[in-house]
Write a structure and sequence with these properties.
Blueprint: H1 6-13, H2 16-48, E1 59-65, H3 71-76, E2 81-86, E3 98-102, E4 104-105, E5 116-122, H4 125-131, E6 135-138, E7 149-153, H5 154-160, E8 169-172, E9 175-183, E10 198-201, E11 211-215, H6 220-234, E12 240-244, H7 245-252, H8 254-288, H9 290-298, H10 303-337, H11 348-374, H12 378-386
Parallel strand pairs: 5-10, 7-9
Antiparallel strand pairs: 1-11, 1-12, 2-11, 3-5, 4-8, 6-9, 7-10, 8-9
Helix pairs in contact: 1-8, 2-8, 2-10, 2-11, 8-11, 9-12, 10-11
Length: 387
């Protein structure tokens, strides 16, 4: 029998419990999708941007070799090696550096007991060109400067409290050094660690240090095997340690990748549950509202109007769930992003993409069932309801 109060039956099937459950499912799904996309955006930002101050793509290094091997000659004979740099140790992972406690610098108040722990590193124009180090103020060191000229990073400028660092003096172990330039912060470690204040000198040209080289895209395995083969010719028992800077840095991001994958799976499950819930509710609602749909068709309503009737109802649920999910997701991800020294912006288009995408998923989940109900012959539907 179909002779029942339409409003009461509709409240039974599409009442507050059902709508609240769909609302909650959409809320959870949107929140997880938002967090996942922000995390993926941040991960991509950290892996692909030059904001970390150093180019690490396709860069390898000879970290250690127990034998005296002419690596320069070997690399020069390899067509897959595009450039090499000698006299410097690999910055990722950071191998050798020292830290000094600086107690005197230009602009410090005389009665202050403040001190700064400053890392001591080496740099020159060749190093800056090789790694794409950006000079923000002043200029890079050259051989004419002597040993009293230095460059410092952004973190050091902030630590000293300078607004115009060029020409300022730093006292280290009783010796005065003059700042010639400021370079962009270089992140050697995982991006959750802040960049330490650092002062850079010219290398001493004593021949110490390793050798760093760049390879063509996709040739790292070939180059590394050739280097190992050449070392093996010198001594089969020689110990050799090679490092791929990008692979090392990727290990820093392992936990972020794992968390991102986990959130992606959970987001998919939440969206699937919400879609199945909407589809089930639409199916029940269409079954109950067969008479209403038939009467509307008799009165001249086309399929588009009937589809709009259902879609508008679920679009309202999407709006309500987004109203709560987006602010919660923003607060959570803003707090998570604060753990990183460089943060991707949470832009407005991210909200639009998620909202439109979820709306499209909802539309696809209801269109088939509603279309099928709207295609039924209204005369047969009304005749069946009167039996």
């Amino acid at each position: 029998m179909c002779i029942r109060d339409s409003k009461k039956s509709n409240l039974h099937l599409s009442g507050w419990f059902y709508k609240s459950s769909i609302l909650f499912q959409l809320f959870i799904g949107i929140a997880f999708v938002f967090c996942t996309l922000v995390m993926m955006k941040q991960l991509n930002f950290l892996l692909n941007t030059k904001e970390l101050g150093i180019e690490r793509h396709n860069v390898g290094a000879v970290v250690y070799c127990s034998e005296n091997v002419p690596f320069k000659e070997i690399l020069e004979q390899m067509p897959d090696v595009t450039k090499y740099l000698s006299g410097f140790h690999t910055p990722i992972p950071k191998m050798y550096f020292s830290t000094f406690r600086i107690k005197e610098w230009e602009g410090k108040t005389t009665d202050s007991e403040q001190y700064i722990d400053l890392e001591d590193e080496t740099i020159n124009q060749e190093y800056a060109d090789f790694f794409g180090v950006e000079v923000l103020e002043g200029s890079m060191l050259d051989e004419k400067d002597g040993k009293n000229m230095v460059v410092i990073n952004e973190a050091a400028v902030k630590a000293f409290g300078w607004t115009q660092p060029i020409g300022k003096k730093i006292d280290k172990l009783g010796r005065h050094y003059i700042v010639k330039g400021v370079i962009k912060n270089i992140s050697y470690n995982a991006p959750i660690h802040p960049v330490a204040p650092a002062m850079f000198f010219l290398p001493d040209n004593t021949g110490r240090g390793g050798i760093i080289f760049k390879v063509k895209e996709g040739t790292w395995n070939v180059v590394s095997e050739k280097i190992k083969a050449e070392v093996n010719k010198v001594n089969p028992n020689a110990e050799l340690m090679l490092s791929n800077m990008e692979e090392v840095y990727d290990t820093y991001m392992k936990s972020e990748r794992t968390l991102c994958q986990l959130l992606s799976i959970v987001s998919f499950i939440c969206i699937a549950i919400a879609v199945f819930g909407i589809f089930s509710l639409v199916t029940l609602s269409c079954q109950q509202r067969r008479k209403e749909i038939a009467i509307r068709k008799v009165n001249g309503a086309n399929i588009g109007i009937i589809l709009n009737l259902f879609f508008r109802e679920y679009l309202l649920l999407l709006v309500f769930s987004s109203f709560f999910a987006f602010p919660l997701g923003y607060v959570m991800m803003k707090h998570w992003l604060e753990n990183y020294i460089k943060q991707t912006p949470i832009e407005w288009w991210l909200y639009a993409v998620i909202f439109i995408g979820m709306g499209f998923v909802i539309f696809l989940s209801i269109i088939w069932r509603v279309w099928k109900a709207a295609q039924q012959n209204p005369a047969e539907v009304l005749k069946g309801c009167l039996l």
